[in-house]
Sequence to fold (97 residues):
Amino acid sequence: MDALYVISIYLLVINLIGFCIMGIDKYKAKKRVFRIPEATLFLVALIGGSLGSILGMLTFHHKTRHWYFVFGMPAILILQLVIAFAVLQLPVQFKVL
Fold:
């Protein structure tokens, strides 16, 4: 099992979680019950679920009136892409044991 496979599975799972928690929070908002904290939504995006969170925002029309989500989530995604590109340019190979 190589590092790229492990990273791909992690990103798939964390983005699915990001997408789902946006939908769950939207559902809870409609029912006026206890909500998922905004810090949790951003944390999931920061640890790799930014694309799923953005897709969840757009699909469920959730948090689209909050400027810090509208600009923050794409900013996190762009930052993650820049970091990923920089890491891929390193002359080091990463291997998982």
